[in-house]
Amino acid sequence: MINEEIAFGLKVRQALDQSASQMGYRVECRLEKARQTALSALAPKKSSSRVSRVGGNELVLEFLEGAKMFVVLCALTLGVVGTYYWNALEAADENADVDSALLADDLPIEAYADQGFHAWLEHSSPSSQ
Asked: DSSP letters of 69-96?
């Protein structure tokens, strides 16, 4: 099947070559334009204009895309870790504020008599450790 197609193509080419001298100038121009259009349709297309800016080197473009992705992932990771750390610091500050307000505030006499309060005080006091 493929050999028949190649043979047919060769016969068409020979017929066109033999009759090329008999064609007029306008027909030659139209055929040349059609040939250029067909060849441009077969040419591989660039995926983006960035390839030509880099000089057509797709390896450099792939490296740059990979480097950009790495930088974005690093920034995202740094943001998540920073947010977690910041929230932990704020929670510790809030707990310290609540504890200091609780200890500095006037407690009712019943609080001092509560066994749970004494257990909490001994457990959370830095001097008891």
From this structure: HHHHHHHHHHHHHHHHHHHHHHHHHHHH
Instruction: Tell me the C-alpha distance between 62 and 51, whole Å.
Output: 10
Q: Identify the residue with better confidence: 126 or 93.
A: 93
Dihedral-angle region of residue 25 (phi above 0 means left; psi in -120 to 50 means alpha; beta otherwise): alpha
> Residue 127 and residue 120: Cα distance in Å, rounded?
13
Report yes or no: 54 and 60 within 8 Å, Cβ to Cβ.
yes
C-alpha dihedral sign at 40, 44, 48, 52: negative
- Helix, strand, coil shares of the chain, percent, nearest 5, are 85, 0, 15
pTM: 0.34
